[in-house]
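Review form for a predicted model. The reviewer records the input and the model, then writes brief findings.
Reviewer: anonymous (R2)
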Amino acid sequence: MKKIFNSFIFMGLLGLALCANLTSCKDYLDREPGTSVSADDAFKNFKNYQGFIEEIYNCIPDKEKCNWCPSWNWGDDEIFNPEADNRMTHQVDLGNFRAWSTTGNWLYSGGSDPSWRLVDVGQGKTHTLWPHSWYCIRKCNIAIENIDKMVGTDEERDLILGQAYFFRAWWHFELMEYFGGLPYINRALDPSNIEKLPRLSFQDCADSCARDFRKAADLLPIDWDNLTASTDYGIAGKNDLRVNKITALGYLGKCLLWGGSPLMANNDKGELGGAKTYDYDKAYCQRAAEAFGELLDLVESGETQYALVEFNFSNVYDHEKAKGAKTCYSDLFYTTKQNWKQPGSTEAIMRGPSGNVGDANNTNWNTAKVFGPKVGGIVEHDNVIHQPTGNLVEMYGMENGLPIDDPESGFDPTHPFKNRDPRFYHDIVFDGFKYINGAASEERKPYVYCELFTDGNMRPVANGSQTGYFIQKLVPHTCNIVDEAYNWTGSLHCYLPYMRLADIYLMYAEACAAAGDASYKASDFDKTAEDAINTIRDRCGAGHVAAKYVADRKKFLDEVRRERAVELSFEGFRFNDLQRWLLLTEPPYNTKYATEFKRVHPQSWYEDENNDPRDAEVVGYTRREILTRNFGTQHYWFPFLDDDVYIYSEFAQNPGW
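Model under review:
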């Protein structure tokens, strides 16, 4: 019995007990704790039914705040310093993928304590993917199966069913990205009889997800605010986080693109050598392109509430929006002095509620203090620092759009920070960057301008940067003890969207190129793959994809992949991208590098406000290997918990584990 209790299937079955004592809503969104009602009451009308659905939203993990030291970038893009060696990012480097269940991360928080496997929907910090998936999938099935009990309008029924179909697919898909094909649970299972449901292939699961996402897209509105229900229940203007037709179309395309990616086209089998990295299943990619095209046509025709945010800064280093700019790129990832408004602006398509319930300042404790230097006490708390790898930073190409290793790019190793892709200056803290804006004490004055050259004062491995860079894309550099952007008065709020519009353009470009070439386009959208990637570059002012890359399908796909690395950097996509492209095991993607160089200019040059650190001259610019990840084919999928695969033989462990 204990083994069953610890199984993933029991988490789904446990939903019967949890859902049997259904909680209603004091009002539409505010659940009254401890109010138990019968199934007939729970499903009798839209207000009660929606209260049942709302709990699913509350279960969506917040990747940035799920633990005291959050960890979600597991590709070649990020490295921690040694104090965080027990975190998942470093355990992945070691090949210890089993650590997903013991290190306290957004997949599974609480370590080995079995009590944390239960679902506490009121504690945002403990919301993690594995236990909440099975709980929510069961809720979705119960919602679908009880729809005939509801007395309401057709619009209200469509809203309930649309959300239930969407989330049934979404929770399955989020698990599939890490574990591969699963049993697709499309009914509320009988708790008195554990059914021996076999695992499906990834593509079979993707087909089931696609059917549910398509149903959701056909049932849900583009904008809830335009509905009669929003007026009737007083929720107009409060629907930003609710899934809609655009969300469903985005995930319809994504699950099909993933299903057509090289790993899945290779029968879910990891392979060494990278020879099949361009071998997509074209049929899946064509279907993906059609879904993305349908979405983008709605966006570009002005029929949605979504738009790319502006990349327009008066001071890009301090993320100061230019006068006259209506939206701000930084607001995608964090907001300040906006009364803790959730980030995402007009571009975020999929988000969950952010942080611990009722804790507006939760960013302060879980996110704001793990990105900057700890030398000199500049940033408070433990010596845990998220750092970009040197190789990821080198993915940021030149302003002219060429990668830095292109002979015609103009990259100059004596001026490595000059004329780079504009996003480089927004995202990356590099040598000479003015890190402290306020009046620093005498002991902290040496750290006002970053010394990130070899042996500089911010390069200690223990509490500085071992790579030569810091990240400020997700958390502003003013989150330090002098500028205090993380204090209560700053109302800093950080949140990473699961899906945003730029990601859709890039997935569309990839799906089109995989189905044809750079000139391929969907039947319902006018832009080609080339047009789509250039739309993202136009936003930030980077050059278009060069003709020599457009003319070669493989080289164009390389540029699409590099664009994903840059535009979506540090947002948690890189590991899954390398995985599905069959590149996770391959050099240089299995190696993490630092950047080493010496300064030419004296310190006074950097302290002169008339000088820009991007113009600095250096010598000896080179890569230094920090570590190489010795992955085998088994590392293309995470292992299941042993207790789960011991329940019955049809639910098999992933190969090699």
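Findings: The chain has 22 helices and 14 strands.
Further findings: The longest strand covers residues 618-628.
Recommendation: see findings above.
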